[in-house]
Amino acid sequence: MKRILVTGGTHGIGEALVRQARKAGHEVVFTGRNEQRLARVAAETGAHGIRADVSVPDDNARTVEFAVQRLGAIEVLVNNAAYGYGDPVGEIDVEAMKRLFDTNVFGLVDLTNRVVPHMKRQGGGDIVNVASTSGMKGHAHGTAYAGSKWALRGISQCWQAELRPHDIRVVCICPSEVQTGWGGGEPGTNPKKLFADDIAGAILGCLSMHARGFIPEFAVFATNPF
Ligand SMILES: NC(=O)c1ccc[n+]([C@@H]2O[C@H](COP(=O)([O-])OP(=O)(O)OC[C@H]3O[C@@H](n4cnc5c(N)ncnc54)[C@H](OP(=O)(O)O)[C@@H]3O)[C@@H](O)[C@H]2O)c1
Questions:
Q1: Distance 138 CA to ligand 1 centre (A)
Q2: Is the pTM of this model over 0.85?
Q3: Considering the domain boundaries, does residue 45 fall inside one?
Q4: Cα 165 to averaged position of ligand 1 atoms, centre (Å)
Q5: Ligand 1 center to residue 212 CA distance, Å?
Q6: What is the mean pLDDT of residues 184-210?
Q7: Residue 184: what pLDDT?
Q8: 143-163 and 108-122 are packed helices; what angle lies between their axes, rounded to 10 degrees?
Q9: 226 located within any domain
Q10: Share of the chain above pLDDT 90, in %
């Protein structure tokens, strides 16, 4: 049994992870901003939901306090919450890009900054950063989103260098397209493309590895979506 904090557990990959982790017997705290979805996932899984926006430092302070109080410790932090914004260069709304970085990068760093001292004190832990294949290869209209995920991959490498001596594993996972309804649409149902459950399973799989080893980074692609 692990004690897990997941950001953005009200939808998509985060929700699938909360559900799978609970089924596997883990204790889970998860965040999100949508009150109704938060209450539904909490009621259906027995995980503890807290309404919190990862881009707001006070919310991150409350989240860590809540997780430590409910779980007794945070053994695993999954930095999953993020969103997309894309415009071509020449038309980029820089304020929109800054807001995206507030969630996808600065908020994630702020939350992790608050969790790492707990992990150091308890002598270890796991941090999973959900990046993207957009952070491995740039693409048109990707300045803000792909830029945030490239940043996350670099940040993950810095944390690996700093935290391995503290027995804290940092894993960076880069999914390709996942049919979550990302951006407000209906979740896709193409059986040949990736589902949120595939990524949740991959995250739990790498966490199940003996603590002497870890997977620094991996991408997940659909085998044959063509
Ligand atoms: N779907 C893809 O194709 C794909 C591919 C590669 C990587 N990813 C990455 O996978 C992760 C999850 O994506 P997804 O497709 O599952 O997205 P999603 O279905 O849109 O779910 C995003 C989750 O994050 C939460 N969230 C967003 N902004 C937040 C904030 N400021 N504070 C707290 N929670 C916030 C949302 O909850 P609330 O609305 O309740 O706040 C929701 O629970 C992201 O990091 C994304 O970049 C996705």
A1: 20
A2: yes
A3: yes
A4: 31
A5: 30
A6: 96
A7: 83
A8: 20
A9: no
A10: 99
CA distance 211 to 213: 5
- Categorize the per-residue pLDDT at 185 as very low, low, confident or very high, splitting at 50, 70 and 90: confident
Residue 162 belongs to a domain with what CATH number? Answer: 3.40.50.720
51 Cβ closer than 6 Å to some ligand 1 atom = no
Domain assignment of residue 89, yes or no:
yes
Nearest residue to 168 via CA among 106, 101, 118: 118
Contacts of residue 36, defined as CB under 8 A and 6 or more positions apart, other chains included, come to none
Q: Give the atom of ligand 1 at the shortest distance from the alpha carbon of 175.
A: 6
**Known catalytic residue: 145?**
yes
- How many whole angstroms separate alpha carbon 164 and alpha carbon 175? 24
Give residue 183's domain range: 3-220
Kindly report, residue by residue over 23-46, the tens digit of the pLDDT.
999 999 999 999 999 999 999 999
225 within a domain of the structure (yes/no): no
Q: What is the pLDDT of residues 71-130, one digit of tens each?
A: 999 999 999 999 999 999 999 999 999 999 999 999 999 999 999 999 999 999 999 999
> Could you give the number of structural domains in the chain?
1
Closest CA to 78 of 45, 115, 133, 51: 115
Out of 2, 85, 98, 145, the active site residue is 145
